[in-house]
Specification:
The structure is a homodimer of 195-residue chains. With 195 residues, chain A is α/β, with parallel strands linked by helices. Chain A contains four helices and eleven strands; from the N terminus they run E-E-H-E-H-E-E-H-E-H-E-E-E-E-E. In chain A, the strands form two sheets. An eight-stranded mixed sheet of chain A has the order 5-4-3-6-1-7-11-10, with helices on both faces. Chain A has a two-stranded antiparallel ribbon with strand order 2-9. In chain A, strand 3, helix 2 and strand 4 form a beta-alpha-beta unit. The two termini of chain A are 20 Å apart. The mean pLDDT of chain A is 95. The interface between A and B is large, with 38 and 38 residues.
């Protein structure tokens, strides 16, 4: 079976969106700055490698908020892979594409691992990532750390209990220095220790 | 003149101390975990290099809280270099060693640059670092990022306004993989863009 991996872009001060994120402005004020590195997603360098790895995952596990802010990805995040949405309230009525719901993190993790088969599961959303961390079901973190301070916004790590979770930094990649400053980013992969 | 450089150790989730930090427990619950890398401070590797660079600075600029929690370093942080403490309320009575006070960040920065001469100024303390960032007087960040999540505690970046500050990652060092996991740390040096 594959790994469950949180894949998120954050500023050095830990924000994944600017202030006042909402459905009209899903990245909040100034949050678009974080995703300039994806302009290089089809380049052969590390940014392209990150994108290709994300696209090679076999399922997406998303929090409900992310799912709504992203307008459900019209039911297809990439290549039609199954999308498992972790939510307290399963919406009524048909949902687009390959979306299914789970009301607790363990069920979401189990379901995502099964539908991903041998491939990895990509996790999107701060709340979903933290929920999986709390129950020991997050295997890896892939963080794209942008060299900027946003000051305010939505944090990636904000709701965890005071409990030490050890990590191993297993990969560290940066773009070529010839990339323009606004597309520079540091990609960090960590394995999460099981307690 | 030298640079003013914030030098801080933080967890991957951005904490510089665990919860409930106070004078009896200046690093809070579990915060000692962050400083295991200093066990290697006299080794020839990156951890030793970081320590040597810190000890080669010509002045310390500290926030008042850090100054108190550290018990004033008995007046001598390292090599007797001048210590400039940023505080709202200058304490009465004699202070130990080479301590002087400044009541606003600009005065603290000016004073620290002068007393450091040609050498760099090391900044300790989240509040002092943020105060200098806000007025454009922080030149560099040297962050020692420990592969651990603490969940709760005191954050390095918590009080900045919603204003984008661009950085350049100019150096990235990790200890040799032969170091034990608890002494692994990633050292990141950023230059702060002046707006």
């Amino acid at each position: 079976m594959g790994s469950i991996r949180l894949d998120m872009t954050m500023s050095l001060d830990g924000f994944i969106a600017g202030p006042d994120d909402n459905r009209q402005a899903p990245l909040g004020d100034g949050g678009f700055r974080l995703f300039n590195w994806l302009d290089r997603r089809n380049d052969p360098g590390p940014n392209g490698q990150m994108y290709a790895e994300a696209m090679a995952t076999g399922a997406l596990l998303s929090g409900r908020r992310t799912y709504e802010l992203a307008d459900h990805w019209q039911g297809d995040h990439h290549n039609g892979v199954p999308i498992v949405v972790l939510t307290h309230d399963v919406p009524e009525g048909p949902q687009p594409g390959s979306v299914r719901f789970a009301t607790d993190p363990q069920a979401a993790a189990d379901q995502a691992r099964v539908v991903a088969g041998d491939l990895d599961v990509m996790v999107h959303g701060a709340a979903a990532g933290q929920a999986l961390l709390r129950i020991g079901q997050l295997d890896q973190l892939e963080l794209h750390v942008v060299p900027v301070l946003l000051g305010k916004g939505r944090r990636l790590f904000d709701g965890l209990p005071a409990a030490q979770i050890e990590l191993d930094l297993v990969r560290q990649l940066t773009g070529p220095p010839t990339d323009p400053p606004e597309q520079q980013v540091m990609h960090l992969r960590y394995l999460v220790h099981r307690s």
